[in-house]
Give the backbone structure.
Amino acid sequence: MNVEELLEKYTSGAMDFSGVDLSEANLSGVKLSGVNLSHANLSVANLSGANLSGADLSHAKLNVARLSGVNLSNAILNHCCLNVANLIRADLSRAQMRGALLVRAELIRAELSRADLFEADLKGADLREATLRHAHLRHANLSEAILKGTSLAGANLEMANFNAADLSRADLSSTNLREAELKQVNLSQANLSGADLSGANLRWADLNGADLSWTDLSNAKLSGASLIGADLSNANLTNASLVHANLSQAKLIKAEWIGADLTSAILTGAKLYSTPRFGLKTDALVCEWVDLSPEGDRTIIQRFDIEDVRDFFNETPPTICIVVDAALESEANFALAGAYYHIAQEYQLCKQPPSIEVSRRRTVITFRVDSDDTLLPTACMAILPFRDAANTQKNIYTMVDTIGKEDISLLDLNTLQRAKQLVAPIQEAIVQAKAIRQVKRNLELAAKINFFKAATQTILTNSSGQTLIVHHNPNFGKRFINAADHVNFLADLSNDSPTPTLPPMNTVIDFVKTFHYVNE
C-alpha cells in the first residue's frame, strides 16, 4: 500500500492500517488522528508536521524517521521503535510509550508532559529543553542522555538510569528519584528542590550549585560527589554516604544528617546554622572553617585547627533528662502532653516533643536540643509542669551566677565569659516560665495530679558527653514501709520540698567549659 491509497481509505473512514509497510514514505503534514498503525513499518519515513494525535503506533518501527513537529498527543506508542528518530519539537503529551525504544533519538524541545515512558530506552537521547512535567519514567534508561535545561518537575523517575547523563540546569523539582541510578551525572545548577532521592546512587555526580533544598537524600550514595555551593537547606541526609564528597561552601542550614558518613569529605566554608553536629562519621574530614550565621552571610565564622574539627562535629546530642520518681499513668500522660503543647506555643526551644520511657516505678522524659548554650535555659522550661520546677530553676541560675563571681584566677577567661553569657537567657526563661504558668490552665490541672508532685532529678548532657545533675530532690527514690513515714512524706508535699544541694562547683565549671561554642 502506498501513501495515496492509505490517505484515500482513511478519508473514506478506514482506520485500521496495522502492519502496513510505509518505510521511507513521505507523510509530512498528513492528518491521521486516531489511525491504527500498530506493527507498521515507518522506518526512515517523513512524518514531519503530521497529526497523529490519538493514533495507535504500538510495536511500530519508526527508526531514523523524521517526526519533527509531529502531533502524537495521546498516541499509543508502546514498544515502538524510534531509535535515532528526529522528534524535535514533537508533541508527545500524554502519549503511552511503555517499553519504547528511543536510543539516540532527537527530542529537543519536545513536549512529553504526562507521557508514560515506563521502562523506555532513551540511552543517548537528546532531550535538551524538552518538557516532561509529571511524566512517568520509572525504570526508564536515560544513561548518557542529554537533558540540559529539561523540565521534569513532578515526574516519576523512580529507579530510572541516568548514568553519565547531562541534567545541568534541568528542573527536577518535586520529582520521585527514589533509588535512581545517577552515577557520574551532571546536575550542576539543576533544581532538585523537594525531590525524593532516597537511596539514589549519586556517586561522583556533579551537583555544583544545585538546588537541593528540602530534598530527601536519606540513604543516598554521594561518595565522591561535588556539591560546591549547592543549596541543601532543610534537606534530609540521614545515613547518606558523603565519603570524599566536596561540600565546599554548600548551604546546609537546618539540614538533617544524623548517621551521615563524611569520611574524607571537604566541608570548608559550608553554611551550618541550626544543623546538628553529632551522629556523624568525620574521620579525615577536611574543614578549615564553617559559616554559622542564620542567613549564611559569613557574619559568624568558626575556624578550626586540625584537631578541633572532630570535637566540633561531635557524636553526643545535647539532652535534658527529667527522671520522675513515679510511673506515668493515663491521666498524667494526658496532662503532660497538654502542658508541653502549651509550653511549645510560647517557647520555641521546646517545639520538639520529648521522648518518654516508662517503667513500673519511674518515668524518664528526654528533650534533645540543638546546641549546648540552649541546654540550661531549656531545662528551666522543661521542668515547668513539675512541683520541683522552682528548685530546679533556682539551682540552674545559682550555679551559673556563682561561676561568674568566681575568682578569675581560678577560671580561664573563656569559661568565665561563657557563664556570664548564659545568665541572661536563663533569667528570661525563668521569667517566661512563670508567665506561662499563670495563663495556661493545663499547668494548673497538672499541679493537682500526684505524678507532677513526685520527686525528680534533672540531668543535662552536653555535646562533649559531660553530664551534670542540676537538681536532685532529696526525697527521690524513697519508699515508705510504715504509715507514719508516709504521713510525714505527705506533709512534705504540702510544703516546699527539702532544700536540694548544688553539685560541686568544679563539676559545674567543667560542664560549661566543655560546651561547643561559636567563635564570633
Notes: The longest strand covers residues 319-324. The chain has a mean pLDDT of 90. The two ends are 82 Å apart (CA to CA). Residues 413-439 form the longest helix (27 residues).
